[in-house]
Amino acid sequence: MHKNSFLLTQDPQWKKNRPGIKQRLPFNVYSWVYEKNSLTKRLRNFYGQAVTVEILFHRWKPAYLSECNILKLPHQQFNLIREVLLHANGKPLILARTILPEQTIKVAKRNLSHLGTRPLGEVIFSYPKLERLELNTCCIPQNLWTNSLVNKISIAQPIWGRRTVYSIQKQKLLVSEFFLPSTLELFNS
Q1: What is the CATH number of the domain that holds 106?
Q2: Neighbours of 98 (CB within 10 A)
Q3: What is the pLDDT of residue 51?
């Protein structure tokens, strides 16, 4: 396991959401990248309560440089890093990596640091003043995933992802979500 991630060996190459990016995404990826509501809610609309969260990594560590830059944080600052796998009936659906600065946890009244196996989306989408500030996309090649993850779930192709900066009472958090093939195959609309 890498020191600040169970999922990734290094920071992916994220692309800013600029004109033209949308047209380059496969349709089934586009549908997920630009989902306005909670991804957990979308999955539960199909699978019901079978959607569960498995915690893969939950530690106070420095985030990747691009994560610090997008959140405007000092690079060596420790943040709560939470990585999870959402699955239904044993089928892996979405990997997620969340960067939670201490100030954000404080304004959220510590709800975000004690999620356990509750999906993050269920909590943050309940905040009345949640803002979506920025969105990036990427397609991650197989060699950026850690051996620990590859041993856990089979990754045989590049994986699309989105990275969203949210704000709760003007305090930011970063959520990166990676759409596994079973999700993209199931939802083509």
Answers
A1: 3.40.1410.10
A2: 21
A3: 94
Task: Report d(CA 70, CA 177) in Å as an integer.
Answer: 16
Contacts of 77-82 with C-beta under 8 Å, sequence gap 24+, read 77/101, 78/102, 80/105, 80/112, 80/113, 81/4, 81/5, 81/57, 82/55, 82/57, 82/58, 82/115, 82/120
pLDDT digits (tens, 9 = 90+) for 36-83: 989 999 999 989 999 999 999 999 999 999 999 999 999 999 999 999
Question: Which one, of 146, 149, 8, lies nearest residue 67 by Cα?
Answer: 8
Helix residue ranges, H only, 72-164: 102-107, 120-124, 147-152
Read off the amino acid at residue 86.
L
User: Rounded to an integer, what distance in angstroms lies between the CA atom of residue 24 and that of residue 18?
Assistant: 11
Other C-beta atoms closer than 10 Å to the C-beta of 73 total 20
In a domain, 8, yes or no: no
Report the DSSP pairing between strands 91-100 and 171-179.
antiparallel
Residues 6+ apart with CB under 8 A from 5: 57, 64, 81, 83, 97, 146
Tally of domains within the chain: 1
Q: For residue 189, what pLDDT is reported?
A: 43
Examine the pLDDT at 136 and tell me if it is beyond 90.
yes
